[in-house]
């Protein structure tokens, strides 16, 4: 399994202001009338750690991720600095179509994990919209060093969002049990 550790290029000319405070928020309209498979859907996001784990598991299954024990997923979410969900509503039910979570030292550094968009909604700009919201929330919290881990096939996606690989020769290291 290979990953790239990627750093966000912190440029002072970027305006990352947001009027959404880093608190539990629900049902913030993000994209109005997104066309998807002949339907027009309103896409919402929420900053919320009360996530339906079975819906998240189905979302991760849809992109072929290896299943993880739900108890550990719940623990990871509970200990995350930020979780953001993208969803649309049908019959008053939230349909989870995107997710990202962030860990942080709450001062200087944050790492983005588990960024996922349902395959039926990929290629519509929702990954970029999701990442924009993650970065806005982190910049709102005055986090200046933002990293993420990405599979090699999606590195170019993150590069287009302003992330760079190995700035100043910094190399990530991993320890795995044998």
Describe the 3D structure.
With 178 residues, the protein is α+β, with helices and mostly antiparallel strands. The protein has a domain at 24-144: Gcn5-related N-acetyltransferase (GNAT) (Aminopeptidase, 3-Layer(aba) Sandwich), CATH 3.40.630. It contains four helices and eight strands. The chain has helices at 53-62, 70-78, 126-140, 155-159, and strands at residues 4-8, 25-36, 39-47, 82-90, 93-104, 109-117, 145-150, 163-165. Strands 2-3-4-5-6-7-1-8 form an eight-stranded mixed sheet. Strand 5 (93-104) and strand 6 form a beta hairpin. It is globular and about 50 Å long.
Sketch the topology as an H/E string, one letter per element. Answer: EEEHHEEEHEHE
* Poorly predicted residue ranges: 10-24
CATH superfamily of the domain at 24-144: Gcn5-related N-acetyltransferase (GNAT)
Oligomer: single chain
Mean of all residue-level pLDDT scores: 84
User: Total number of β-strand segments?
Assistant: 8
- CATH class of the domain at 24-144 equals Alpha Beta
Beginning-to-end CA distance, first to last residue:
14 Å
The amount of beta strand, in percent, is 35-45%
Tell me the helix content: 10-25%
* CATH architectural grouping of the domain at 24-144: 3-Layer(aba) Sandwich
Main sheet attributes: strand count, strand direction, barrel closure = 8 strands, mixed
The coarse silhouette is: globular
Strands side by side in the biggest sheet: 2-3-4-5-6-7-1-8
CATH topology of the domain at 24-144: Aminopeptidase
Structural class: alpha+beta
| Annotation field: number of helices | 4
Gyration radius, in Å: 16 Å
Keywords: Acyltransferase, Plastid, Transferase
Domain N-acetyltransferase: 49-178
GO cellular component, one term: cytoplasm
Protein name: GCN5-like N-acetyltransferase
